[in-house]
Amino acid sequence: MPHNRSDFIGAWSLVDWRIEYSDGNVTRPFGEGAHGYIVYSQDGTMTASIAKNTRPAFGLTNARNASVQQKSAAFDSYFHYAGPWKIDGEEVVHTVTMSLNPDMTGTQQRRVARFSGNDELTLSALEATKSGGERHHILQWRKIPSLSSQ
User: Fold this and answer.
1) What is the CATH code for 5-149?
2) Of 52, 62, 76, 101, which is least surrounded by CB within 10 A?
């Protein structure tokens, strides 16, 4: 059964991002306590950002002056992409027009969407591994109440 577009609209905060592997292993790319947001706008634009719970500050007035190691650590501890979104059956499709990872730009990120009540959303995707197995990305989100409803 297709989803209702209106169910997605708004801002969601990350509860958990885990990857379950076909061998039973489970990892969390940004560790326990990662935080993030995904926002679906009425006009059909989305944006998603996720970060490790703790990220070392550069301690600089201009981030462009950070060392290569500092920049690498910042890149490795943050994830972002944005672009148009649409519903396709039980999936939400994100068409990536900009991303921290340039290789994601121009791709379509398809996620199976499952709602629990009015305030919980799980987005998931299966992906083949290089070793021939599978890994299952599972991202759980909680709806942020709008200021107008408070």
Assistant:
1) 2.40.128.280
2) 62
